[in-house]
Structure formats: C-alpha cells, structure tokens
Amino acid sequence: MRLIDFFDRGAALFPDRPCLVGAGISLSFRETQRRTHRIASRLIALGLQPQAGAAVMSPNDADAFSCILGILRAGGAWMPLNARNAVEDNVAILGDNECRWLFYHSSFAAAAEEMRAKVPTLLGLVCVDRPNDPDPDLAGWLEGASDDPVYVPAGPHDLASIWPSGGTTGRSKGVMLTHLNFATMIANFITSMPTDEPPVHLIAAPMTHAAGCISFPLLAQGATQVLIPSADALLIMESIQRHRVTTLFLPPTVIYMMLGHPRVREFDYSSLKYFVYAAAPMSAQKLKEALEVFGPAMAQTFGQAEAPMLCTFLSPKEHLVIGDPKLEKRLMSCGRSTVFAQVEIMDDEGRILPPNEKGEIVVRGALVMKGYYKNPKATEEASRFGWHHTGDIGFKDEDGYFYIVDRKRDMIISGGFNLYPSEIEQVIWSHPAVQDCAVIGVPDEKWGEAVKAVVQMKADGKATVEELAAFCRERLGGMKTPKSFEIWDQLPRSPVGKVLKRTIRDRFWVGRERNV
Question: What is the pTM for the complete model shown?
C-alpha cells in the first residue's frame, strides 16, 4: 500500500467524521480528501515528478497538514521541515535533498525568501495561509484545480518521504523512507496500540516530528487530528479535556513542564488511552508522577528517523508495576521489540550479545530506511554487519526488555572508567527541585574527562550545588557523582525539545585540539 492509501481507508470508513481540527477550522475526511486531490492535481500539472521532494514548513496547522497529504497523493516524497530549526539548517536540508516545492506559513515568510534564493532546485513556493508576493496563498493556488481523483502508482520500495535525521550531532542527513517502511511502522503501531473506536489525536509536538508520523496509523482508523500551534503545557491540558483526546505524543521535557504546572491536577484526563512519550529518556521518578496524574495511559516507544517510531514498545499495562520491586525497574526500559522489527544488542565486532551485556542497539527488517539520500558512505556506515546501527548503547534483560544506557558518543571516559550520563541524570532528575539536567564530560588534567552536571531548576525549585552533590553522592557513590555542578536558567534544546548536550559540551571544550 501507498502511504496515502491509509488515509483513504479512514476516509472510506468515516467520510463525515472530523479529520482536521484547528484554530477556526474543521474539515471532514470527505472535505480533506477532496482537497488532497486538488493539491495533487496542481503539483503534477506544474511538474512534480514521482518521488521528488516537496516540503511543508509551518507550525501545526490544518491547511498545512492537508498539503502533506496532497504531496503524498501526487506521488511526491514529503520532506518534513521543522519550523523551529535555524534557517540555515532548513536551507541545507532542502538543498542537500533537492527539494522541488515548498509550502510555508506566512510566519516564516523571511525564511522562505532565503530558501528561494539559496535552493536552486525549487520549482515553486506557496504561502499556505495568505498571499505573500510573489507567492500565492493555498486557496488562490488551487483555483481552477481539478476535483478528479488522482492516482499515482508506487511500489513498496519507492520513496514516500525524505526525513531529516536528528542532526544534534552534526549536519542532518536525508533519511529515505519508503511506502513499505511506513506500512511497517503503521502495522507496528496498530498491533501495539489497538483501539475499538476512532481515536482523537492531539498534535501538540511538531507535526514534522513523531506527532506527524503517528498520525498515519491513526488516520487509517478514522482518527480526528486536533492541531494546536505549540506544545504549551496549559494549552495541551485544556485541549485534552475539551476534545476528549485519546492519543497524544510528547517528548519527556514537555511532560515535565506539564507536571510542573500549578494547574496540572485541575483537568480531566480520563479520555486518554495512549499517552506516548519518546525521543529521549524519561526520569523514572517523573514517570511515576505522570502515572498518578494522567492515569494508566503512559506508553513508551523507541525509534528514530531511520527506523521510524516503533522499534520497541512499553505498553500502558507494562507501566503498572509500581510497588513491585522486581518489576518496577521496567519503568527504566523502552520495552520489548515490536512485532515487525528485529532488535538486538551488538558489540563493535558485530557479535550479538547475550542478556545484560551492554552494546549498541541495532535493528533490521522492513522498518529500516532505504538509506541516506545520495550519501552511500553514511548509509554503509549505519548498515554494518547487515543491521541498522542506532548509535544508542543499551542492554536487553532476560525477559526481552531493552534499556537505553546512553548515546554511544555521549559516554564519558574518566580515569579509565566508562561512565554513562543517563544513569547519573536519573538520580538528578529525582531531586524534587530539579526540572531537567544534562550530564557531560569536561576536560580535566587528572582524569582526562570529569563528570559535570548542568541543571535547570523548577520555577519554585531551590537547591544549592552543594546540596545536589550530596544528594548524588548518597545515591551514586564518589566515582559517578559529578565533580562539578552548574545551575542554568534554561538548557539549550533542539526544535523537538531534546536537550542539546553537544551545545553544552562544546562550551567547555573550546580551544582544545581534542574533545576527548
């Protein structure tokens, strides 16, 4: 099946059900489907070839989301552009991956103008919400477009999307995802998170990230997509109650903000069936609090752009282990491998490791990308020994639950010992005054690298660095306790909310020939 076929399934089953709901707009599946045919008709008439890239740059917006569907309908490869990226990063993504069309929201008009000037492959630009000379708005651009159904055939290995890799460790690469990759992701999602009625999905995190990715298995089930412009904690909590949201994805940092909000316990969350968290490890202590506040709906996935969203899954039921010392450790797990993904732990020589030995998490199967766009060297490097290498260090226990220890490149070597920041971060996160933290290695004449913690406190949180050090020493011992602490007002974050450890770390390694 083509990716757009999953949307069409939802439209066939529930044509009059609300499909896209946003500020001042509500489109049924029938209305949305008609619009996608018109967008596709225009793109094809204006020269978009099958599998050629077309991008959407917008905050979460119903009209912009319909453009994504229209690109897929035309046989194009959707290129998600995170509007919160730096302009130069998005220019690089469009240029490196030879984008042909750009749909953008007027709030990013200046960025679009820079892209027009610097991306020579662009054939045209459309401003989604209003005319922006010389670009038409979407409504004007669609005037006279045919309502006739558009069908562009595609094989399972044809491109459906060119997805930017994370980019937190260097220049983003174009991840080539096929219709088969998405079909596998959708199969994993539906088998992992079944439902007996059409869901209501709140898109609060950027629709260009996981929130957009998981919309497709939900659309296939007739889900209403409620789009809000930003991941504002209060707006999210109000929207869950107002729209009776059943399904929601957020990175842990936004969940922390919700838990820290003074009104978090005022709202009704009883409609939630799957409150999915992913993209970064979550504090076990804050996860327990989330279970108390939001109810038995928390669910974790592990994946990445190269193997989208569901390599492993920890179900809501598997979160209900509080009070059982033997099972409570599973709150630190990202779950077991999903039905349509093979996941293992591998050493540097390509050997699959037995339970409880640490190594790199590797994945294979139809979920894994076709490769990096026009980057065979990077593709080969990521595909050693016939498996996709995630760059994450972890282990698998005797029951098949996977635990992420750290990013491979984040490991700190101090005095010859390998120290994993995530273990230390879990302890610091558990301090009642702490909202978030990052543990990094900094240069040290004696140890080579010394462990340093950079901490962001809650709005009403108070603790000295001495108190934080004592808190860690009691729980970690001397070797793993950070040698130094700093308290910052805000930690730098990527456009999807991940703490940018590289940015923090670079501040302490300036002027050195080696960063280890």
Answer: 0.85
